[in-house]
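Consider the following assembly input.
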Amino acid sequence: MLYFSKLRVFSVLIFTLIISYFTISNFTKVDDEFFSKNIKLGLDLQGGSYLLLEIDNEPVITQRLQSKVLEFKKFFKDKDIKVRNFVIEDKSIIFDVENSKIEEVKSLLDDDKSEINPYFQQYKSHQFNIENMDTSFKLEFSDYGLVLLKNSSLDQAIEIVRRRVDEVGTNEPNILKRGNDRILVELPGLDDPGRIKSLLGKTANLTFQFISSSSEESFGTEKLSFEDGSSEAIVSKRIVLSGDNLMDAKPTMNNQTNETVVSFSLDRVGAKKFGKATSNGVGKRLAIVLDGKIISAPEVREPIIGGNGQISGNFTFQSATDLALLLRSGALPAPLNIIEERTVGPDLGKDSINAGIMSLIIGFILVVAFMFYKYRFFGLIANLALISNLFLLVGILTLFEATLTLPGIAGIILTVGMAVDANVLIFERIKEELKNENNSIVAFDSGYTKSRTTILDANITTLIAAVILFFMGSGPIKGFSITLGVGILTTLFSVYFIARLITAYYVIKNKHKEKLI
Amino acid sequence: MKTIYFNKFYKSFNILSGILIIASLVFLVFKGLNFGVDFKGGTLIELRTDKSSANITKIRDSFNQMNLGDVSVKNFGNETDFVVKFEKQNSNDPQFIDEIKTKLSNSIGSVDFRRVENVGPKVSAELLRSGVIAIALSLAAMLLYIWIRFEWQFSLGAILALFHDVIITLGVFSVFSLEINLSIVAAVLTIVGYSMNDTVVIFDRVRENLRKYADVKIFELTNISINETLSRTIITSVTTLLALLSIFIFGGEILKGFSLAMILGVIFGTYSSIYIANPVLVSLKVSQRTIVKGEKE
């Protein structure tokens, strides 16, 4: 165990130097991207906001079922099958079929090549599960059909969230999928997430609907309240125009009234629709509805045909900017709920870094002093291993751009405390071996050999804990598991390559000396 | 070094441990744990006030007037820092936190919100579940590992020691109503790793000695092994505790609970490797035949 080939000495040295370089690169400035790597600080250290959003998929499911009903009706009509009594109930579609066609409908729905109820070979599942009782059919999303639906609405939502966050212009936001109905938004440096939260909390479904004069509209009517809660109005359910047709929106000043408005421009289809509706509706009031609340309901004085319009509604410049932003980035497929929020102010982050570094330095000095007191020269070797261990650990974290969190710093300090264990095990073993062995080289060698399995055992147990934490933990805790786990690997390296190398060199030089350790 | 007769006290310390475990369980069942917002849901605000104006009663009063459910206010580190926790979490209302801030500054003067945590009931339930699963998984993984490495008698001893450490550490948290949050779960897992580590070192030596001395009774043999590894046990515990104490004292308020749990865990872990794990071997009458038989299989 004490023999090192020249090549090995060389590679250990090079490896240690290269990795250590990345530790130092945290404190220097180099122009090259690869060589100027910095450790990434977690939100708890640099300050920032962490938001976990959950999509409320209920409305999407209902919407999808409604459009599916239309598809079914058309499909069966084309096939000359009479179906009736379509109902959507309890997240499923129910309908009746004439007696003679039951089997045919069954096979149409149940076939692997069914057009209307697609079959996914790799998941062995249709989009819908079918229940049949006499003439009645009940269709319900299969598990996989539901996953598909959730994924597509999540994909849409994440795109919209990204646009909205980008428009606000925070630095380096991190937006990630979590499971099939959650979105994680990390906003470094943001200490007041109020505005982002209010932007993400809105579905931003914009519609234009006429205020109804009579309640006997062919499309039906609904009662909506104004956004400021002042009053209510009966609105026709017919949607003149929706936000989908919007091309651009921005806050502007209306020169005549001197108030802030949101002006918008429509795409070609939208302009045409809007022109036609406003031509027919001169004199009526057109309600501008956002997420089920009326923003304003101005009277149409003349047809609006150019595809440009304005939304007024007692805006401040800020609220007009936000509304324009929401309209530009598009509507979410479903409402988002913020189910977890963690915000750390920048000065607390700084305090945490300082406290972390302070305790690292003090912990390090205490451990180093204790080891020197206990083992003298060999304490120095262990301490050298400890220092290179720290350099390796921070270097590897930097190289892989791991995120350093406050618990992560605690993990580094803990590594300092526990890393000496391996050297202690070896030194104690060597002491025992020296009692019965006169040849110090043999004693040292067998000290290393005999302690090896114990050291591996002891470190694997901690590594197991770190790995489980890595997979089960979130955010800051994950940072802890990373430093703890990587710390074990660098500890083993520094003990078996660096400390052993120096020990071997020293022992071979001083083999005749009494009481080596 | 002079031999210490640890084995003389196996019985008395086992009784002590038994009492501590029962007491911990009683506390855990009847008093329960003080879960933080991570596991209970709700809102946590760490705030810093202007030096002059605020005191804890004033802050508590103004929060109590806001209808936020159960409010707890604690001093946090120095006299201008406070941590406020309450049941209500309303992260969907973007003005929720701002409104609290405005109301608070009206009554106690300017405040700075240094940290806000807002955890919904669904998330807290999930975090609690994954925390419990993580601890259970790590115990199972340790059991599996030691089962592969050692004979079952050793596994039983090591696992009993682990349960001992985890239960008593949680018991202490229950007795003093210390907060259980995500970092405590991390601490418990690390304790599990550390305690195992300590036990494995002694067990490795026991096994080695079982091969060496055929005619020494396990009662004596465990004591020999404990003594042979004693200086390592002490040195490692000391360096680990030095590092942990440094976190506890200088690492800031956020890491206090974490480092305290770890300190307790290291102390109990060291103790249990000697006084729980070894007596198990003795009462299971482990002998040279145990390991020879184990190796044949």
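The first strand of chain B starts at residue 34 and ends at 35. Ask yourself how this observation constrains the way the partners meet.
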